[in-house]
TrEMBL record:
Name listed for the protein in its UniProt record: Nucleoside diphosphate kinase
Start and end residues of each Nucleoside diphosphate kinase-like domain: 1-137
Organism: Ostreococcus tauri (Marine green alga)
EC numbers on record: 2.7.4.6
Family stated for the protein in its record: Belongs to the NDK family.
Length: 148
């Protein structure tokens, strides 16, 4: 079953959006496999966003991610990587559709409240990076009511 790494960034936590964001993934029918609140070290944030290390905003991005606790999660379900990105909305909130998390709750790209993996391969990499202890294995009871 497909899994994705979703993270509520420090602004999302500080602005009281944790429950709202979790609710959107849960109501859709996705399964929560892991969740923890944590402060992020500079080294860990740099690893997570390593692909962007040459960007001019990299330093600001890393200090943003370390500016307060994040909520790290693993969600599972059919096409959860792609659908998760749809639920989140475009990177720049100025372009995110209303109804998406970024479209509804933020204004600037440098304070866009949430992260979601952009491909199945990066999801697996990020899940390993953030949850080296592994995720919770259990049988979600509503499966037959969500999948045909
Ligand atoms: P993530 O889910 O956080 O990975 O966002 P994304 O996949 O939609 O975008 P991308 O991976 O390209 O960029 C990662 C993060 O860097 C974004 O979510 C923004 O927080 C930040 N970012 C991207 N582009 C810019 C930019 O032009 N300026 C600033 N200040 N931040 C940016
Ligand atoms: Mg990204």
């Amino acid at each position: 079953n497909e899994r994705t790494y979703i993270m509520i960034k420090p602004d999302g936590v500080q602005r009281g959006l944790v429950a709202e964001i979790i609710a959107r993934f849960a109501r859709k029918g996705f399964t929560l496999r892991a969740m923890k609140m944590m402060n992020v070290t500079k080294e860990h944030a740099e690893k997570h966003y390593a692909d962007l290390s040459s960007k001019p905003f990299f330093g600001g991005l890393v200090s943003y991610m370390c500016s307060g606790p994040v909520v790290a999660m693993v969600w599972e379900g059919k096409d959860v990587v792609k659908t998760g990105r749809k639920i989140i909305g475009a990177t720049n909130p100025a372009a995110s559709e209303p109804g998406t998390i970024r479209g509804d709750f933020c204004i600037e790209v440098g304070r866009n409240v949430i992260h979601g993996s952009d491909a199945v391969e990066s999801a697996n990499h990020e899940i390993g990076l953030w949850f080296p202890e592994g995720v919770c294995e259990y049988e979600p009871c509503a499966k037959a009511w969500i999948y045909e």
